[in-house]
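We recall that each integer encodes one residue's backbone shape. We quote one record:
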Amino acid sequence: MTEVPSPPVLPGLAGVVLAGGAARRLGGIDKPSLRVEGVPLLVTATTALRAAEPVIVVGPRRPLPADVRWVREEPPGSGPVAALAAALALLDRLAPPSDDMTDASDTTDTTDTTGTSDATGMTVAVLAADLPGVTAHTVARLWSALRGDPAADGALLVDEAGHRQWLTGIWRRAALTTAVPTEPRGASMRGTLGMSSIVEVAALADEARDIDTPEDLRP
């Protein structure tokens, strides 16, 4: 896929990578550390979020730039919604929610370059750590789609078969906070967010490809 330049910063966007799964179908190996075309999958995900601030990785620490924030779901391995809940809790500490977070029509860049502004994390990109085809352009398209639909809670990538990719999307932070249950352990993303208002973005090339089995690693 030809990479299309994306903005250096997408105003109000925070990024979350869910990187704590057990990868049972891959023999329990550390899937985010697997290399596809020489690049670790976790690096691919965090690079795709280069326009987000902050970037939070949920899972055990691995070699990444120092500005990446780390957190673990409790207990470890308790599922994607528990991981998302842990990321949102950390985001609340880094950038407390403000009243203007629900104003989807305001596209003014209020980012405070001297620190964390109230607008930081108004929207949250949520990516799995097993997406070799996801890029910064993917994230920029999702962000633009959500900003273009004030009534939507989130924007999700959709594969060529029409399946929503629940771990490749951008959400309004307020919608995530409302949807995530008090007890998130074992909950699914679809079950948690399936009733949300979602704008769909068609995947390009291999953007929707994920790595679940050894066969998925083949070119």
About this structure: The beta strands are 13-18, 35-36, 39-40, 55-58, 69-71, 123-128, 154-158, 164-172, 198-202. The chain is about 20% helix and 20% strand. The longest helix spans residues 80-94.
